[in-house]
Design goal:
There is one protein chain. The chain has a single domain, classed as Metallo-beta-lactamase, Chain A, CATH 3.60.15. By secondary structure, the protein is α/β, with parallel strands linked by helices. It is built from eleven helices and 15 strands. Helix 7 (about 205-220) runs antiparallel to helix 8 (about 235-255).
């Protein structure tokens, strides 16, 4: 197993836990990576955070895990931001929403798609990993929700969140900074490896492709794209990822049309030529097929 494989696998394991234990959080390094003068990508454990700072207040995209909130706020302040005034969740998994309660208790106004609030408020179970997430408290729930899109006019930019149905989940949104020409793609984009698709909660491979197409339609060769997981990306990398998704979809759809079960599809090795490039991350192609096949 390569170093990349080990590090990404660790991210997945942590992402499937309800929180990062306090002892582990002490070891996590939070890094704010400049994207533009006002926008940063914050890395640590879990999904990549988007940070937008300016005179109207600090705008945050996702928030990783609760034990990391203090460190995340410190990183924000180290680059000129304040305690977040606004937070938008790109979807509801715990590695993107674990800090909601602490931020909400601190006065942060939280936004999300309708389905994100519903799942956070009732809890959920991810069958692929046998992981149960309890409902969060009222303080961590989004107070403003939307069904399709929502726009923010903040810090000198027009920021638009666009819902993408039945992609990674049934509640995904990506965030587009028009003036800055930056996109936070959430978990529509796992930069460099096969993505997790939560088919239990409305996700599908076809929906992922459609979602990526929406992101690509807004991007140009200068666009900087923050992925849900992996390094900062660009349009060329997202297009390559999209081609992989399309290739997988066509091959798996053919096997499904032939009546193959998930186990038979795995045995057919339909993605063997993609493994070297895309399988050195969270999943091998065999495991990925097992997880996503019912959503093809």
């Amino acid at each position: 197993m390569t170093g990349k494989n080990i590090s990404i696998l660790c991210v997945l394991i942590i992402a499937l836990m309800s929180l990062v234990p306090a002892a582990q959080s002490d070891e996590v390094k939070i890094i704010a990576i400049p994207v533009t003068e006002q926008i940063y990508m914050i890395t640590g454990k879990g999904g990549n955070i988007g940070l937008f700072i300016g005179e109207d207040g600090t705008f945050l995209i996702d928030d990783q895990f609760a034990p990391l909130t203090k460190k995340i706020v410190a990183a924000i302040k180290s680059v000129g931001g304040d305690f977040p005034k606004f937070l938008i969740n790109t979807y509801y998994h715990g590695d993107h929403t674990g800090g909601n309660e602490k931020l909400g208790q601190g006065g942060t106004l939280i936004f999300s798609h309708d389905n994100v609030r519903e799942r956070l408020g009732t809890g959920y179970f991810i069958a692929a990993f046998g992981m149960k997430q309890q409902a969060i408290s009222r303080e961590g729930l989004p107070i403003v929700t939307f069904s399709e899109d929502i726009s923010f006019h903040i810090n000198g930019d027009g920021v638009r969140a666009t819902h993408v149905p039945h992609a990674h989940t049934d509640g995904d949104s990506f965030i587009y900074f028009k003036t800055a020409n930056v996109i936070h793609a959430g978990d529509l984009f796992f930069n460099g490896f096969y993505p997790f698709i939560d088919v239990t909660h409305g996700g599908s491979l076809k929906g992922m492709i459609k979602g990526v197409d929406k992101v690509l339609s807004l991007a140009d060769d200068s666009t900087k794209i923050i992925p849900g997981h992996g390094p900062l990306g660009d349009k060329a990398q997202l297009a390559s990822y999209r081609q992989m998704l399309e290739t997988a979809y066509e091959r798996l759809r053919k096997l499904k049309a032939e009546g193959k079960t998930a186990q038979e599809a795995v045995a057919a090795k339909p993605l063997v030529d993609l493994e070297k490039t895309w399988g050195d991350g969270i999943f091998t192609s065999d495991r990925w097929i097992e997880i996503i096949y019912s959503g093809v």
